Amino acid sequence: MTVETKLHLIGNAHLDPVWLWRWQEGYAEIKATFRSALDRLNEFPDFVFTCACAAYYKWIEENAPEMFAEIKERVAEGRWVITGGWWIQPDCNLPSGESFARHSLYGQRYFLQKFGVMANVGYNVDSFGHHGMMPQILKQSGMDSYVFMRPEAHEKALPHDLFWWESEDGSRVMTFRLSNSYGNWAKNGMEDKIVNHRNTAISDGHAIMSFYGVGNHGGGPTIENIHLIHEIQQRPDMDGIRLSSPNHYFKEMMQIGPDIPVVKDEMQMHAVGCYSTHSESKAANRRVEHRMLTAEKFATLANIMLGLPYPLEALNRAWENVMFNHFHDIMGGCSIKEAYSDVQEFYGESLSIGAKSINAALQKMSWSINTMKPGVKSLNKEKDWQLWEQGNLGTPLVVFNPLSWEVEAPIAINKKLAGVTDAAGNPLPLQTVRAPQTNIADKWDTLISGRIPAFGYQVFWAYRDQTFETKAPEGAAHTSGCMLENNQLYVELHADTGYIKRIIDKRNGFREVFAGDGAVPIVLDETHSDTWGHGLAQYRDEIGRFNKAELKVIEEGPLRATIRVISHYGNSVLRQDISLLHDSADVHVKVKLDWREQHKMLKLAFPVNVTKPRAIFEIPYGFIERQTNGHEVPGQIWVNVSGQESSTTEGNELSTFGLSLINDTKYAYDVLGNELRITVVRSPIYADHFGERDDQVEFMDQGVQEFNYVLSPHAGSWQDSGVVRKAYELHAPLMQIWETYHEGALQQVSEGITISSDNVIAVAFKPAEEGNGWILRCQETYGREAVTQLSIPTLNRSWQTTFGKCEIKTFFIPNGEHDPIQEVNFVELTKNK
Hints:
Elements: E1 7-11, H1 23-43, E2 49-51, H2 54-63, H3 65-77, E3 80-82, H4 97-115, E4 121-124, H5 134-140, E5 145-148, E6 162-166, E7 172-177, H6 187-204, E8 208-212, H7 223-233, E9 241-244, H8 246-256, E10 262-263, H9 279-306, H10 312-325, H11 328-331, H12 337-367, E11 395-400, E12 407-413, E13 419-421, E14 431-439, E15 442-452, E16 457-463, E17 478-480, E18 483-485, E19 489-493, E20 500-505, E21 511-512, E22 520-525, E23 542-545, E24 547-556, E25 560-569, E26 572-581, E27 587-595, E28 600-607, E29 611-619, E30 622-626, E31 633-634, E32 638-646, E33 654-663, E34 668-672, E35 675-682, E36 703-715, H13 723-731, E37 735-738, E38 749-750, E39 754-755, E40 760-767, E41 773-780, E42 786-792, E43 797-803, E44 808-814, E45 822-824
Parallel strand pairs: 1-8, 1-9, 2-3, 4-5, 5-7, 6-10
Antiparallel strand pairs: 6-7, 11-16, 11-37, 12-15, 13-16, 14-15, 16-38, 17-18, 18-19, 19-20, 20-21, 22-23, 22-28, 24-25, 25-26, 26-27, 27-36, 28-35, 29-30, 29-32, 31-34, 32-33, 33-36, 34-35, 39-42, 40-41, 41-44, 42-43, 44-45
Helix pairs in contact: 1-3, 2-3, 9-10, 9-12, 10-12
C-alpha cells in the first residue's frame, strides 16, 4: 500500500421509506434513525455518519426542528456527511432524463439552502441498475464521483470495483462498487467483512470503502458496531482502518490518482422483473412526468406574455411527490399492496396540480387572442347549446402544442361539425368519428388534421352548419375487411387470430416490415420468478397465445381508418384498435386489456424483417445499444431494431432498414435476434421474495388497463427515422380550448421557439430558481454534433451554440434583453462554480 489508510469504514443507515411498510412508518423510522445517529456522534468523537436523500431531511425539518438544528451543527462540523444530492435514492432506469435533473435541482438546492453544502458524491447503494447516461447527469448535478452496489459481481463483471465511468457524451465520474452489502446485522459477520475488505484493499494497491450499520428499516451504526471497530483498530495486524465517509474516500483517491480502468457501459442487470411490475404506477409516472413539463412550459409562456402568476409552490410540491415515488422499491414495483394506494394519491395530487396549471395558462392565453368577427356586438348563445357561433361565423377552437417543433397531428373535436377552417380560413378535410357519449342522437365527434407551431398555438374555426369544398386529404386512409392502406403503408391482419400478417412499406421499395406475424400476444409462465425477478435474465417460457379473434372496422377514413381486434386467452380479453392515418408511415394501436391471469406474463412480439439486427433503446437523456440475446431489459419510450435487408435495386445491394416501437406506459422489452418483444403485463405476487405462497397472497395487475403503441418502419439508420419526435408527440399531445368572440392582444397563430437542428429538442422551459430570468434545457438526441440556432420570440432572444454528441445543455436567460445568456448545470449554477 502506498498510503496509510487501507479501509474507509462508512457508517450509514440504509432507509427504505416505503417497502414492506407504508410511508408513514418510514417517516417515523427516519426520525428514530437520525436520533440514533446523533447519539452515536455524541458518544464517539471519531464517529462519522453518512446520509443521502433530501426528502428525509425535509421531514425532520418539518416534524422535529430541534433535531434538525442538531444535524445542521454536525454537518458544519464535518461529521454528518451529506451525499447523494437527490431527493431520494430512485430507481435509476425508469424515471425520465428530466426527472433525474429535477432530483438534482431540488435535492442539491435544498442541501445548499439548509446546510450551505452540496453533495459531491452520487449515492444509490440499493438501486437495482444504473443507466448509461448517469455520468453526465451526475456531472451536471455538481457531483464527480458515484457509489453503488447493484449489480453485484455475480451479476456484472467489471475490470475493477473502482473505475472511471464514462457516458456516451464523454463525461466521466470516479465510481466505486461496494461489496458485501451496505450494512450489517451480526457481530461476527461485520468482523469478517472488515478483515476481508482490508485484504482486498491490500491486494488492489489502494484503499476501498466498507459500509456498516443496520439498514433497510433504518437503524444505522450501533454502539456494538463502533466498539468492535475500535477493538479491531487496536490489533497490530489491522492498521489503516479509518472511520470515514464517501467524500473523504473519493477525495483521497482523486489525490492519489490510482491506475484504474475506464468503463463505458451501463451498470446492469439486477432484478429484471422490476421493469414490468405494477403497471398502474408506471403508467401514472410516465403520464405525470410529461404533464409536469407541459404545465411548466405553458405557465411560463402565460407569465411572459400576459403576466399570469407562475404557480411555483404548487408545481414544486407536485415535483416532490413525483420524485418520492421514484424511490427504487416503489418504482420497481416490489412494495406491499397497501403502499400503492399511497403512491396513487401522490401521483394524483401531482397530476391534478399539473392539470390545473395547464388549464389556467391555456385559458389565459386563449382568452387574450383576438377572435372577434365583424357583425358580433355581444355574446349570445341562441344557435347551439354548446357553441357560441352566431350566424355562420364559426366558433374559435384554440389548439396548443407543448413541443419545440411544429406538429401535424389528428385533432378530435367534441362536436359533430359541417366544416372547419384553419386560422387563415383554409377549409380542412374532416371525418365524423364516434364520440365517447351516447346521448340520444348526439354520439359523434369530428376529426381534423392540423399543424401547430412549436411551443405555440393556432385558432381553428368550427362551423356547425356551413360546409366547405375541400380537397381530399393527401394519402387518404381506407380499410376493407382485414386490410388498412394509405399512400405509404399496406397493413393486413389475420382474420382468425387478429395478428398483423404483414406491413408493406410502399415508400421504400414495397418492403415487408415483418419476417412473420406481428403484434402476436404471447403468454409466458413466470411462476419461477419472485416479484423482483431475482436471478433471472429473461422471460421466455411460452404457454399460450391470445387468439379466437373478432375483427370489426370501426373507422373507414379518409383521415383515419381503424380495425378493432378482440382476442382471448383464459379469462382475459385483449382489444387492439389498429389505426392508419392519412399520409402516415406509422401504425397506431390503442390497447385495452382485461387481464385475469396469475403468475403469467403477456408480451407482444414483432419479428423485424432484417439480418444482422441491432437493438437501440432510449434511456434517460440518451440511448444505448444492447445485445439481441433475449434478455429482459429496461427502456424508456422507444426501442428500435434495425439491420440489413436485400434491396430490389440492381446488384442486390444490402441496405439498412428497421422498425421503431413507441409506447406510452411500458418500460420492459427484450430482443432475441430480429424479434422485438414489449412486456405488456406481469402478474406476480405483491412483495414476494420467494416466500411461502399460500391462498391469501394477492396478485398484481388484475383487471383493466389501457395504453397506446406505435409501429414506425423506416429506411436508413434509426437516427434518420424521426423516432424521438414521434415518441414525444405520443406523450405530449396537442391540447385545445373552446373559445368565443372577443378582442385580444394576441394573434390567432403564435410560435414560441425555433431550433435549427432536427436532432436538438427543448425538454424544459421554466422560471429560474433564483435571479430574474428563465431556464431552457435542451438535449441532443441522435448522437450527432450540431451547431444550433435557438430563438425564443416572446423573450426577443436568439443565440447560437454547439451541441456535442448526446449533450444536455441548460441555458439561463436573464430578463434583461442585453444581459448575456449563460450555460448552467442542473442545479442552475454556472459550471465553474
